[in-house]
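Hi all, posting the design record for the shared folder.

TITLE: backbone redesign
STEP: 1 of 1
STRUCTURE INPUT:
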């Protein structure tokens, strides 16, 4: 490899969008054959390149390297001030409880350097995080399966893997007058926290819901903090 070739690679690495678009044929042609052994198996192929491309795009976006940064954009500190003000109001109105101060983010937790204007924060600083309520199978059938007015009840089985629509039509409804059930607002990020689906099953609500105790709702404190960004992270 000569000096000129090395320079070209470095220049291209500074522009990740070109690395993706100019070599899209390589990404799309990378195919991984799945195993053909085992009972009832048939030869299948996976678009391995596309899977890795999606992972790369997400990684670049989170690091602020997918597109050039605009120095005129409002810095994250301004949004965090809005979030803090909204959170303080919710605490004052007793909508949420005041939480203990969180420890500062250590250098060991900083996996990469942030672009100018970005800031690292812990999720609890910008989100109201809480889990739902469990219902046993007998009670689901006897009390909540023939309800017409109420909140949809979302269980782990009703959540997909990312941006898939949640299954709101599972037949389980929690009446509005039920006092003990927690309600997650529309635009909340649901994340499974137990079992083999922990951290994998997730989605965004498009309406107010009740939900199971193996799921956690992540409600943004301010409308300018987009749930799609939270889900990607």
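Okay, here is what came back for every position:
SEQUENCE:
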């Amino acid at each position: 490899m000569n000096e000129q070739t090395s320079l070209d690679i470095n220049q291209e690495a500074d522009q990740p969008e070109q690395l993706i678009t100019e070599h899209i044929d390589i990404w799309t042609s990378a195919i991984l054959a799945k195993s053909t052994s085992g009972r009832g198996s048939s030869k299948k192929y996976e678009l391995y390149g596309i899977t890795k491309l999606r992972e790369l795009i997400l990684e670049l976006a989170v690091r602020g390297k997918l597109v050039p940064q605009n120095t005129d954009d409002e810095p994250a500190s301004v949004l965090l001030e809005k979030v803090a003000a909204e959170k303080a109001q919710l605490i004052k109105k007793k909508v949420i409880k005041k939480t203990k101060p969180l420890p500062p983010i250590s250098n060991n937790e900083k996996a990469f350097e942030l672009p100018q204007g970005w800031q690292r924060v812990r999720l609890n600083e910008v989100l109201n995080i809480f889990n739902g309520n469990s219902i046993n199978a007998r009670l689901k059938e006897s009390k909540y399966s023939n309800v017409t007015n109420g909140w949809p009840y979302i269980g782990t089985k009703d959540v997909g893997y990312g941006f898939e629509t949640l299954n709101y039509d599972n037949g389980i409804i929690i009446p509005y007058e039920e006092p003990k059930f927690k309600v997650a607002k529309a635009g909340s990020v649901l994340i499974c926290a137990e079992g083999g689906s922990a951290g994998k099953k997730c989605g965004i609500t498009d309406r107010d819901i009740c939900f199971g105790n193996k799921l956690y709702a992540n409600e943004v404190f301010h409308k300018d903090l987009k749930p799609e960004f939270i889900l990607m992270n």
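COMMENT: Residues 1-13 have pLDDT under 50 and may be disordered.
Let me know if anyone wants the other runs.
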